[in-house]
Amino acid sequence: MSATAPPGTRTLLAVEHLACSFGGVRAVTDASFVVAEGTITGLIGPNGAGKSTAIDLICGRTRLDAGSVSFDGEEISGEPAYRVAQRGILRTFQRANVFGRLTVMENLLLGAPPGEGERLSRALWLRSSWHRSEGEGIARAYALLERFGLERLADEYAGSLSGGQKRLVELMRALMAQPKMLILDEPMAGVNPTLAGSIADRLEELRGEGMTMLMVEHELRWVERLCNPVVVMARGRVLAEGSMADLQANEDVVDAYLGS
Amino acid sequence: MSAANVYYLSGLGILFGINLIAIWGLDLQFGFSGINSFAFIVFQAVGAYVTGVLSLGPANTPVTFETYILGTRWPWPIALLFGGLAGAALAVPIGLIAVRRLRGDYQAMAMLVLALIANDLISAETGWFNGPTGLESVPQPFGNLNVSLHAYHWVFLGLTALCCIVAWWVTRGISRAPLGRALRAVRDSDSAVAALGRNPNQLRMVALIAGGFLGGLSGGLLIEYVQAWGPASWLYPETFLFFTALIVGGRGNMAGAALGTLLVPVGIVEATRQLPQIGYPGEFDDFQWIAIGALLLAFLWFRPHGLIPERRRRLRPADGDRSRYRRGVPSWLRRAPTS
Amino acid sequence: MTMLMTIILFGLYSSALYAIGAVGFTLQFGITNVLNLAFGAILTSCIFVEYYATTHSTNLWLAMLVGGGAGALLSLIVGFGIVGAFLRRGAGGFNIAMVTIALGLMITYTLAAIQGPFLFAFNVSNTTTALSISGVNLDSQQLTTIIVAIAAMVVIHLVLRMTKLGLAMRATADDPSLTRGCGVSPARTRALAWLISGALCGICGVLYGIGVGTFGPFTGADFFITAGAAAVVGGIGKPYGAMIGALIVGMVGQAASAIISPAYAPISAYVILVGFLILRPQGIFSAFAAQRELVA
Questions:
Q1: Which CATH number goes with the domain that contains C268?
Q2: Omega of the bond leading into A229 within 30 degrees of 0 (cis)
Q3: pLDDT at A259 (0 to 100)
Q4: How many domains does chain C have?
Q5: Is C257 a domain residue?
Q6: Residue C171 covered by a domain
Q7: Does B125 touch chain C (CB under 8 A)?
């Protein structure tokens, strides 16, 4: 099933006929959907529907068996994960993926795009070439921490944080890159409701600033609050697409959630 | 202090320096980047061999029964540099075989097997580096100076110190730069590094090459000091001497590596050489290795982070930066938290 | 024809040796998830134990009993005991690898200290030809090795497929949390895995030591290259794969030795190993290595 963006909006990300199998199990069979610019598009579905696999396929973490992915008009299928990220698509992971042995500040600094300081030649001489951008990065990271009210965690090792705090660090780190699009894999999972609410507030603010997001989420109340449109996947395919109200009226969708 | 003791101490100083360069190199590969570089001794070996064959001059095979490749008589600084470069070059095939796709224990095993294979190959292929006998009578830097043995030690100590400064500059440069941070991130999570636009394999290769250069440089210095090098000098356990130094002293930081170098290769191995000979010649070496194994186990149990753990880096914006940056910050970053 | 028969018969002999060792190594890794880098050291100690305990006996059955027993015991102490203690303390993957290295070093150099500067040798002068095809002779010791290897493979197969323990072992290999349902406790499964792999290691060691004749403290380390190659080829953690891997490494080695020169037997093993590491590190029968995040 192929989809097009609602009239009046621009498609930022388009995936068509994605397919992928692991060891005989077909995780994604034929998935197609689009993400329109400026929206928070939800991606929901029962367990095993292939949502996280679809994300991995888009972001280049898993190899595509078939299908294509295009971003901002350019074909990006099959590109390795770091190339996809360099295009401005930043993602978070289902299990909080922070650098445990680095401090929170260092984690955030790695969110900024790789600069001159990460080249061997510049590390050895010409310190001036990256000294300034490093200072700016530090200022930006600290400002971001203050924005989220977490500056007291600046020097804590990320590995010692609570689950919710790790998720926030991951989100802030992704924001440091000033992405064109954010892909969030279950950002609310295992986070206490208060913190989740505050994350939801931030996401709404980001959307207000024009950020495009694709969000996989299980807890439907956050999907209802934040996402429009919503894509439903089941058994490796896209089942339906539309607003939450449309989907709740859709029998196939209800069956998929109850029947599986 | 007697002349003999001074001579002995300067010798210890030289060995400290040579080992320090190698251990800093291993720290770049393992401590910073998390590569289980169980074949590290081969980097030192290739550096020693290449420096040797570039300094020895052509092989006088009919007379000395030696065969080896190259055999030029280049000045020692060039030979030494090329020893380092050989170590850096070796990082490419080793990276291709054991770093590009392998992780964890499997990588460790593959590296170990590579070290075994390398030693077997060089022992067997007599044409490359004179097989099991190895290279001998390698000329020393400033060898034609007419100075006493004791005075020459000071000359070599100076040379070693110079090379240590180079190693210090390389290691510190990487550690302090954003590159060092990226390397330390790679050891925690490949996938997160890639999701942030960096190629983890390329970063690992940088660490492998830089560490390999230092390993090779260390080897070049070593062969110029002891003037001989053969397969028996670089059996697979030697790598673990360096690892023990890092685990005891503390990995991921230069001070820890230095402390470990002082305590392990220099401390245990050299200082205990003063004790009387037991049993057959070489038996004492066996006891040293048993002690190294025991020391390793003890630290892995009681203090796996080593004596000097990695230091926590505290980063804060300079005052000027903070206010300046706040002005240029997008609105959604600047707004005070609403909840 | 003679060359072909040479390759086949001696190839079978080499494969037999590699198979016993490689299957032990890979089976234990598959079940306990610990890569035992002290494997070579344990192998060598079994040869030493047999040498001393039976005063250089070359009676293979006695040797296998003593060697296998020593291997099982040593492996249990190293693996279940010491490594187990570190695991219970929460030590991570790299630290465990270093523990096995440290233990291997201590064992190897204890043997070296005992042995002194001389190589030991078994007196294998009176060999009787047991099998002769097309003028190629296998002596009784070589034939016994092949038979023992085949028997061991059959026994392993039966244990894995037909016993509760085997089921528990296969379950642990797939997912450690599944074992509780099998009726055998996870700890017991792991202990038996170390025991069995240790016995195989010891049997392999004595057969190898007696077969080659001379041995020293580093014998096991050298053997580890080829046993490791067989395990890698078959897919690390997969015992059936290791059997196939051993066959490949053994046969190709003998073929290289017969066709090119004897020096090329070990070299062909290196080429196969390195080739697989570069092109297909998960081995012929993959899934396991990828599952445990050992291969990117």
A1: 1.10.3470
A2: yes
A3: 54
A4: 1
A5: yes
A6: yes
A7: no
pLDDT band at A220 (very low <50, low <70, confident <90, very high): confident
pLDDT score recorded for residue A255: 80
Residue that is written with structure tokens 């030795």 in the block: C257
Q: What is the DSSP letter of B41?
A: H
The position carrying tokens 């305990």 is: C53
Structural domain A11-98+176-259, CATH architecture: 3-Layer(aba) Sandwich (3.40)
Best probe of the B interface among C78, C105, C119, C218, by most B CBs < 10 A, is C105
Range of the domain at C50: 2-112+141-291
Alpha-carbon distance B193 to nearest alpha carbon in chain C (angstroms): 14
pLDDT at residue B232 greater than cutoff 50: yes
| Within-domain flag for C121 | no
Residue of B nearest to A81 (CA): B194
Q: With an 8 Å Cβ cutoff, is B132 touching chain C?
A: no
Average pLDDT over residues B69-78: 85
Find the mean pLDDT for residues B74-86: 93
A124 and B322: CB-CB below 8 Å?
no
Q: How much is the pTM? A: 0.91
pLDDT (tens digit per residue) in C143-174: 889 999 999 999 999 988 888 888 888 877 77
Q: Do C89 and B300 touch (CB under 8 A)?
A: no
* DSSP code, position A64: -
DSSP H helix total and E strand total for chain C:
12, 4
Domain-wise residue ranges, chain A? 11-98+176-259, 101-160
Which chain B residues are within 8 Å of A177, Cβ to Cβ? Answer: 196-197
CB-CB under 8 Å, A101 with B315: no
Does C264 map to a domain? yes
Alpha-carbon torsion, ordered A204, A210, A212, A217, to 10 deg: 0
**What is the per-residue pLDDT for C179?**
59
Q: Say whether B289 and C116 touch across the interface (CB within 8 A).
A: no
C-alpha span between C111 and C133 (Å, rounded): 40
Mean per-residue pLDDT, B163-188: 94
For C197, phi then psi, to 5°, come to -65, -35
